[in-house]
Protein 1
Amino acid sequence: MAQRILMKGNEAIAEAAIRAGCRHYFGYPITPQTEIAAYMAKKMPKIGGVFLQAESEIASINMVYGAAAAGVRVMTSSSSPGISLKAEGLSYIAGSDIPALVVNVQRGGPGLGGIQPSQSDYFQATKGGGHGDYRMIVLAPASVQEMASLTIKGFDLADKYLMTSMILADGTIGQMMEPITFEDAEPKTYEKPWALTGTECKRGHNVVNSLYLKPDELEKKNFERFEKYKHIEENEAMWEEYMMEDAEVCVVAFGIASRVAKNAVAAARAEGIKVGLIRPITLWPFPNKAFAKVLDKVRAFVSVELSMGQMIEDIRLATECKKPVMLCNRAGGMIPGPDEVLAAIKKAEKGEF
């Protein structure tokens, strides 16, 4: 039987990254993700790794860019305002088609906002985050166990598709403690012939660059990149279904909101309401197939979010606006209770929008 370890969510990410082969971490402290940096600061020197607290978030993401170009597994972590500062670097990494892992343990905003949990960086993560046409693979853990397993998955997907993976967590999952296991911590290995490792006079020079001065070349590169994105959308979307077999109302939630929503679904079922839950695990690619499968039998959807309503737009796109979608939300660091979600389910069941 695998050993179970009681860990905080942020620490689980850090330990999983180490087990995934990450030996380079560059970051800057910000609540509520500072434990990731603290864990790396303690562990990296002991295993021959590199921990560096940069002078800023901007510096740290460019250090990630450099290390990724050399072909090593590298990560950075931050929280909402810090991710905004990293946006230019994220775009450069995307434009260079190299792999990296970025962790965002979200807090309330906009601006400095507060240090309480939020999900209001959904747009920033799933629609790019920086300038230009690009995507990131976005993974949304709903438990400390998934903080670990999705971190390893994120590294693997980044290497597989030569792009950035982002763990989009929230402050609650980052700070909570649960028993987890690393029994499935078996990262994959990928050849990286494109990496800047020195030629040893045995091959031509590799170039990692995002600059294309000829517009036809840049256009060609963008079209090629989006062909890859289509493949990812088709093959890498992940989601969980809960009590959806006969559901007439579908609740949609991710992260900590999905745990609240699951309790509300169970309470509604106890009252005879046919309701289920779809939990997107990949926010990009969004699990459109999950919605296409239930669209004919579900009468209404309820999006539960810790924001002013962002994922709700992707639900409407996934359902082609054929069914009504209600928003059940709290913002600014507040979390809806199961009773609030239950009330929204009852309204949706009655058609009160």
Protein 2
Amino acid sequence: MTVADLGCGSGFFTIPLGSMVGEAGKVFAVDSRPAALERLRENLNSVTRSVVRTVQADVSKTSIPSSSVDVAFVSNLLHDIDDKAEFMLEVRRMLKPTGRLVVVDWRRIEMEFGPPLEIRLDEKSVREILKAGGFEITDTLKPDPYHYGFVATQMNS
């Protein structure tokens, strides 16, 4: 399995994903910040080091090969992407036809941590963004009280 962790930061999800895909798998860890990718590389162990490929790039303009990814994973990032349509096109480009997009983001509620409330996206908005981007939601996620998520597949054109 090939996974793209888009906006991976220092690897909070990249490292467990690297263990999950196994030695035959691959994880593209994409972030625009060199320091975050360097910290990720420092945290990799012998197993994950062999499957994780760091990619310094904007998540909307990666060098990931077309139709090569089984799962595109986006956590706590969609609210920060300026051109969501461009991002959705990039995700569609990298995904295999049977690939899935997993989006997890902050709930739009007051809390003492996370991004400011005014930039958070509610679930309805994310559903609309996914649909406009050519995706159909196949499952919903409730990872914790602070986040929501969706699993989506590409709609047939």
